Amino acid sequence: MKYRIAGWASAGFLVAGCWALDFAGASKDNPTEPIVYTLAFLTQPIVLASFHFHFGIGVYWVLLANTATYALAGLILIVETLRRKLNQAKYRSSASSSERVSP
Length: 103
Prior knowledge:
It is built from four helices and no strands. By secondary structure, the chain is mainly α.
């Protein structure tokens, strides 16, 4: 479980790092298309929040926040998967125990 959360956190860090490199290469001669901004907003929630609430945020904070966001998303997905497995196990054990009892 720790490795899965670390994997999600690493993915968040890599996504933010790739966007930082992409936007660092942008200039007036080579402008960024609107679809690129949309993809950046969707994959980096802190950037969307900073544009919505009109506050600036540094690249390092974006890296940190995106890493934490993806780790939290991975944790939520893991918890949801475990909850489903436990519910299925309870259902199977209760169904099999009710089949064994014969009146």
